[in-house]
Structures are given as C-alpha cells and as structure tokens.
User: Fold this.
Amino acid sequence: MTHIVSVQQVFKNYTLGTFVVPALRGVSLDVEEGEFLAIAGPSGSGKTTLLNLIGCVDTPTKGLVRIAGNATETMSERQLTRLRLHTIGFIFQSFNLVPVLSVFQNIELPLLLQRSATTKERRARVEALLDRVGIREYASHRPSELSGGQRQRVAIARALVTRPKLVLADEPTANLDSVTGTNILDLMKELNRTEKTTFIFSTHDARVWSYASSVVRLADGQIVDRVTAEEAVRAGGVPGQPSPRAT
Amino acid sequence: MRGYLDTLKVIVVIAFRNLFASRLKTLIVGGIILFGSMLVVVGTALVDSVDASMSRSIIGSVTGHIQVYNAKSADELAVMGNFQMEGADLEQIDDFKTMREALLKVPNVKTVVPMGLSGAMVPAGNSVDVVLEKLRDLVRRQQAGEDVKAAIPSQKDHVRQIVAVLATDMANVGKVLNDKAVAPEERAAIARATAPDFWDEFDQDPLGTLEFLENRIAPLASDADMLFLRYVGTDPAAFAKSFDRMKIVDGTTIPPGRRGFLFSKWMYEGQVKLKTAHRLDVIHDAILKRDKAIATDPDLQRLVKQNATEVKEIMLQLDSQQTDAFRAKLQKELASQESDVSKLLAEFFRVDDGNIIRRYKFFYDELAPSLTLYRVRVGDTLTIKAFTKSGYVQSRNLRVYGTFTFEGLEDSHLAGNLNLMDMVSFRELYGFATPERDREIQAIKAAAGLKEIDRDHAEAELFGAQPSEPESPAAVATVDDADAVLRGLAGKHRRERREDQAYDPAQLEQGVVLNAAVIVRDPRRIPQTMRDIEAAGTRAGLTLKAIDWQKASGLVGQFVTMIRYVLYISVLIIFAVALVVINNALVMTTLERIAEIGTLRAVGAQRRFLLGMLLVEALAVGGLFGGIGSALGAGIVAVLRIVGIPAVNDIFYFFFSGPRLHPGLSVANLAIALAIVLVVSGASSIYPGLIAMRVSPRQAMQSDE
Ligand SMILES: Nc1ncnc2c1ncn2[C@@H]1O[C@H](COP(=O)(O)OP(=O)(O)OP(=O)(O)O)[C@@H](O)[C@H]1O
Ligand SMILES: [Mg+2]
Assistant:
C-alpha cells in the first residue's frame, strides 16, 4: 500500500514572543493515492497548519512528514520547492492568481517554472485544462475581470497543469457562495476521478463532507477521528465530541 | 536552454506588467535615471573635449608632452601655473647635449627642446625721456657747430607742453586728494620748469637744464613703466619646429646664431602698446567678436572710464603742432567748441555702443599716425636686467625681432604671458655657474680688490665679455690676465653692439639648461615614456625628473582634473539619489506583492526567480530611461558640436583652445552612462530582492487572514 502522504506524530508550535501556541499536537495521518480527503474542524483547530506541513511550505516542530516517498525533514529549501513544483498543486481560499498575468499565463506559469515542456506542449496542456474547467473563452482575460468562481476555476487549472500527484486546497469554497462552491467541488471531484489525482481539502462546512472519500476531523490540534463520508454525514453534522463550536 | 528563455520571458512579462501597473512610480524613477544618464553623457563629453582641447593648448604652446628637469631641484617645475615673479628654483642640467642624446635613445621621444624659464624687469620707453633725448641730441649737435636752429624750438615746445601736462596733473592730484599728496620737491621742480624765465635759463645752460629735466621732471611722468617680462630661453628654431602652433605675427623669428628677443603678441599688445589704444581694441573686439555691449557689460564700462581719465599718456606725446592738429580734428569729429585737447580726448574716449565703431576707425585713421603706439618697436633694442642666481644684476641688450602667438590661443593670457629669447642670452642673464665662470669670477674679484671695483659691476662686465665670442677678442677673459678683463671694462662702446653679435649655433646645444620639453611620437604612452626617460637619464649619469604636461602646467593643467571630480561627485550624488529612490520604489512594490510572491514560492518558484524578476524590473527601467537619457545627451552634444560653446573669457579661450568649443561624443561617454545606470539599477534591486527572498510560501495561505 503506497501512501502519498504519511504524517507521523507531528507537533507544530508557533511562538508569539514568549508565548507558545501548540497548533498541532501529535497528529498522525496516512493518505492513499486517489483519495479525496476532507479535513474538517472548527476554526483554529489546525487545518491550515496541517495542510502547510503536507504542502511542504512549513516544517513541523517535531515528527515526520513523508510526501510521495520523500522524507521532507532531510530536504533543503530548494529541494522542497522542487517537490512542490513537480508533485503538489495548490488551491487557495482567495485564489491567489498573479494579477498582471492573463488567465492563460497564470495557468501556464508552473509549466514555465518546470522548464520541461515545449511551447506547443504547454499550449495544448493549458487549453485542455481551460476546457476542463470551462473557462476557455476567458483565456486572455485578467483575473480581475472574472468572478470568484471563475477565478477558482483558473486556480484549479493552475494546480493541475503539472499533473501533480497531490492537490491541496485550503477551504477552496470559503470565499464562494454555496452554489458556486458546490460546482467547484463537483469539478474537483470529477478531476479526482478522471485524473486519479489525490485531493486533500480543508473545510469547516459539514455540507461538503459528502463529497469526500473520508473525513478527518480535527479539534485543538489533534485528530478526533477519521471516518467515511457516509459515517460523517450520518453523524448528521453533529459529530461526536468534542462538539463543533464553530460554523 | 529553451526552458530558460521561456522562463525569462515570463519574468519579463511579469516585470513589465508590474512596471506598467505602477506607472507613476516608474516615471519618477525613470525621470531621475534619464536626467542622470543625460548628465553623464553631456558632462563626460564636455570634460573630455575640454581636456583634449586644453591639453592641445598646453602641449602645443610651451610644455610639450613631457618636461624634463634636474631631479635635485629644490622646487617642482611649473611652466604655467606658477604666478610668481621668479621661475621655480631649479637645479641646472649641465650639458644639454648629453641629455638630449640620452633622451633620443628612448624610442617614443621625437624631439627635445632646451628651455629655461625666468623673468626680469625691463625699463621701456618713457615718452618724456624720448623727447628729452632728442633735445639733448639737438643741443649736442648745435654745440658741435651743426645748424639745428629750425628743429630746436619745436622740440623745446614739446617739452614745454609736457611740463604743462604734468603741472595740470599735479594740480588735479592736489585737488582730489590734498596738497600733502604731492611731495614738496616735486612741486618745486614743476614750479621751476613752469617759471617764465626757465627757457632763458635753458638757452644759457642747455646741458645743466636738461640734466634737471631728466632727473626731476621725467620721473614725474609715471608712464615710465617697467615691463615685467617672463621669458623662456630656448633654441628658437627647435622651438618653432616642435611647437607648430607658434607663428610669427610681426617681424621675423630670431635668426639662427643671433641673440634676440620675441614678444608674445598678447604681451606686446597688452603691455607695450599705448594703453588707451589697447583698451579701445579690447572694447572694439568684445563688441564685434563676442557680442558684448558697453551698456550691459561692467568690464567694458570700466575700460571706457579708464580711457577717458587717462589721456595723459597721449598728451605727453604731443608737441604744440600736433596738439593743434588734434584739437582741430577732435573739435570737428565731436562737434565741440572745447579748446582743451585733454578734455576733447576724454570726451572722444567716452565711447558708447553707438559710436564705438566710428571712433575706433577715427582713432586709427586720424590720431594714431601721429602717436607712438608701441613703446618698444620691432627692431628696437631691449635692455633686460635680471638678477642672476647668485644675486648679481646681469644686463643684456637684445634686439626685438618680432612678436609671435600660438594659433587658436591668440586671446589667452595663459598662453600669452611667456616671451622668448635665445638660450645663449638666457644663460647669461640667468647666471649659470660653470667651473670656468667660477674661476673667472675669482679672477675678477682679485682684480677688483686691487682696483676697488664693486663686485656687481665686475660680474656684469665679465658676463658682458664672453670668452667664446669671436667678435670681441679684446674682451676675452683669462684666468691669468685679469687685467685684460678690467681693461675690457673701459670698452663700453663694444657692448652697444652686443645684440648684433652672433654666437656659434653649437653653443645652443652644448651649454647648461634648466629644463627641456619633450615631444613624443605616441601621446598614449606618456607614462611609460616618462619612466624610460628617467631611466635613460640615470644610464647617462644624469639625475632627471620627467613630469607630464598636466603637472608641468601647474594649476592650469589640474583644472580639468578638478572639473572632472566635480562632475563625478555630482553624478555620484544623482545616482545615489536614484539608487535610494529606485530601491524604495521596489521595496514598496515588493511589500505590496507579498501574497503574490508567496504564491509564486508555493507554486514552485525558486528564490532566484524572484530575484530575477526584480532585477529585470530595475534593469528595464534603468535601460529604458537610461537609454533615452543617453540619446538625449548625445543629441545635446551633437547640437553643441554644431553650434559651439563660446569662450566667454580668455581663461575659457585657453581651455577651449580657441574661441568656441565643439565637443565631441565618444562611445566611452555613452558606455559609461549606460554602465552606471545598469549598475545602479541592478544594485537598487538587491535589498528588495532580499525581502522577496525572505517571503515564505506560507504567506500565500495567510493572504486573507
Ligand atoms: N503564524 C502563526 N503564528 C502563531 N500562531 C498561529 C500561526 N498560524 C496559526 N496559528 C495558531 O495555530 C492554531 C491553528 O491555526 P490554523 O490556522 O491551522 O487553524 P485552522 O483550523 O486553519 O483555522 P481556520 O478555520 O480559522 O482557518 C490557531 O490557534 C492559530 O491561532
Ligand atoms: Mg485555516
């Protein structure tokens, strides 16, 4: 059994002056390839922190993070950047597109950073993704000319353009209305199925759990449980203890 | 490779889009860079051109490329920059020939010109003396029985006229200041000369009265100016050949093997010419050639005023007939009833912009022909008295062969304040010590002790009697026969012809010199050649010091270096400001783009990608505006080249090596500007680059928090 993500006994402390904030307290998590994993939990429970560690944009205070077989604690900053470029795609809550580039150029950017594809290959790949996410006609627009949902589609296309094994999405629907959010999750789910890409996304919205292949519930920096979407939904959005305070 | 290019492309796209997005900032930064690069191009082009033209002036007038002098000298040689009376205290170089031969062995040395610089006071042309001399001559002839009755009265008349002018002058001084300003013996002298029976007295005792006039009256005419002449002693032929901008204006050059003196034309006009006439020339030229106007130029107004108040110099030259003629002409020209000629002259010289051209012409057509315009004329003999190194006074009579100037530097006092004389006379006036001469002085001293003749006189007489001169065998001094020398003292008349005496041209070559100008074949190799010269000197047993033209010309030569530093410092300041401004602008954009940079990092951009992005942004602004600025600068230089920058005064005249500077542009000027711009813009992206590099990819996630 290959685990695309393997997190073992991870602790993460943030220090604010002399004050230490324990954001994660002994988290262990294995994710199999092809999963569509939701990380759920109230605000401040450590979702973003966990995703940052998985996404190699941050390092744990203690514990091991293994991504696609790479022991991240042994890797340099440059190597981690390469790992992100080639293995991980990111979808952000506030889309984070480069405002001065067109939609096409935004999607193409990771390929240019990879420096492996020819112009033609890049063009074909970007156009295919534009079709997939349904914003072909906006290829030459600037992000500022698009709606939130359209921007998130651009972000999804950008995340997928390098055919990463793993896509991380931190509350991808939080800035969208519920209909648009549902559409985005539909799109992600479909891409997960067709491209066999592993998705890990965080949410504190119980309604979207049903999309997930399994749901990891976090509270106070610790994993409460890991259940299937059905179990989670059966729990009726009122999962066991501790009871979700937020949302 | 392809990949790199495409990455670069995306960097460029991002960079340019960002620049466009913050247009105002880009324009401010760009404006500074544009101005800075323009300044660099125009500034360096101008300084380079001035440097080139001034070096032409200096090298071409007197220093040559390199000056060589004795390393044991107490002072440093300063051919132009030394504004003292005396030249620098230099140790002599004993044998020019040896030195020349040694130097010519250095491959880059083309010619070596012997030199010596010194100065002397020269009494020249008191117009009263001239008149009295004529009168004395007439008296002498009368006593010898010649019939000069017709000539004497008019000459007496002229003297009377002079005394009258001096008396008025004295009265004026008394009025303006107070009576104590005039010494009692001067007042007494004038009283005696203006007394009604003075000329009866003259008729009875002409020689005694003349004595009184010469001793008491002539000194009152203070136009008995001493000329201070700085001169370079050299081989006139070699000098003319090596400094090919030198050209003779009046007369001829000093013939080979002859003693003689050449005035610099500038000096001749300024010091020897009648002052009023010279001032009129200056005013006329300023208006005609330099577009000046008396109404607006205080310098010209001062000259006009001086001319109007200083007509005495002309008055002293006029005898009664001439006075009448002047009165008639001036009354007509000025449509005036005034009968006092000095007042008429004063009014005449009170020129304005409307009448200057006419008055100038009138002066030269109508008045000048009756005046002595130059106190010393070509062909006259100049008596130069100089202090020798040992402190004795040495005197030489030198024939003035002509005047010379340096082409393109006609109006420059820096090039014009050196006159020229043959090296042989120079050596005598300078009083070089040679072993033979020391022995001769000893002999003279011995004889002088015997005959009680004072030492100064002895040396003067000795040096006046050069042993090697074939034409005065009687004056040959030998150690054994000091008496013979002293007998020679009596032969005063022989000295009168001295200026005509020739010397053996080989003497120029063989004797002592103070310094030498070296003309090289390849001016780019001057520093190396200087080292070679010193080495060659050492090999020949000489202690030579070589300095380049810039150093040799003293302060003047360093002026351009000074301007250059000023330019560099202003450029430095401008670009320091540019650096700070570009830096700040980039820091601001970087801080505004933290989330974007974080995103790029998260998505997989390495740090150097961000660095490249900022660098391209800075270089693009620098390159674009630096390019425009340089192009504008090149345009300005091109226009200046066609129009020319006028030399506003004679200092600039010298710097510009002529009346206008036509600056040239070199590739180096542009290259320097662009290099500075690129370095500065590159450097200014370092700090924002560091900020960008420290942005963590995590900051992409937190963009909304
Ligand atoms: N950079 C930081 N410095 C200090 N404390 C931090 C930092 N980032 C997160 N924390 C703290 O760590 C804990 C976990 O934060 P995290 O952002 O992972 O929670 P979250 O589940 O993503 O919350 P939300 O649903 O509000 O996004 C919180 O208590 C938070 O205040
Ligand atoms: Mg979060």
